[in-house]
Amino acid sequence: MPHTRFMRRSSLAIAAVALTGALMACAPSSGSTPLPQQTAPVQSLEDACQIASSEVDRVVTETEAELRASTDQALTDLRNGTVPSFSLPSVSVDGTLETIEDQITNPRVLERVTAVRDQLAALGEMPTPDTLLGVTTYVTDLVRQISVIVDSGNALRELCGITVTAP
Q: Which of 98, 106, 31 is closest to 59 using CA atoms?
């Protein structure tokens, strides 16, 4: 009998050591790679468009209307022989679009909202002409930039299934 007890205890000890070894092999070591962080689920296209559409549409439409009016006035001034004063849009673009960008996690919608913001920012960086000779180039560049802004807005509208309306 004593031999049986010894065998049983030895078997239990060996099993415990084996189990401990197996568990240690499964446990993360100090040099192991960390588990990936959980990321928020990708926002649906519909949800992202809901956030972006009304504000971006409003900003683009207002900016386009103001720029067209400014360009038309500048061309009228030129035809009348006066030096045009170019007024850029008064729309508060950066704050509005940055607020929208903070709420959007859908990469497709975010890419288009960022494109609209970047194009509007590029418009604000356009230097106005110092002389009458620079007016033609400025107006040409301004019209080109308006077209790029409208195209960026239309790309977002198209992605979100928004019907483009005339201002």
A: 98
- The number of CA neighbours under 13 Å toward the Cβ of 166 is 0
Cα–Cα distance for residue pair 20/25, rounded to 1 Å: 9
Within a domain: residue 142?
yes
Q: How many residues does the chain have?
A: 167
Query: What's the pLDDT at 39?
Result: 61
Read off the pLDDT band of 101 (50, 70, 90): confident
Residue 38 domain flag: no
pLDDT of residue 93: 60
Indicate the number of domains in the chain. 1
Question: Does some domain include residue 33?
Answer: no
Domain that holds residue 49: 45-160
> From CA 23, how far away is CA 158, in angstroms rounded?
55
Residue 166 lies in a domain: no
CA dihedral 65, 71, 72, 78 (to 10 degrees): 170
CA-based diameter of the chain, in Å?
Answer: 121
Write down the pTM of the prediction: 0.60
Question: Residue 109: its pLDDT value, please?
Answer: 92
Using one digit for the tens of pLDDT, what is the confidence trace for 113-130? 999 888 888 887 888 887
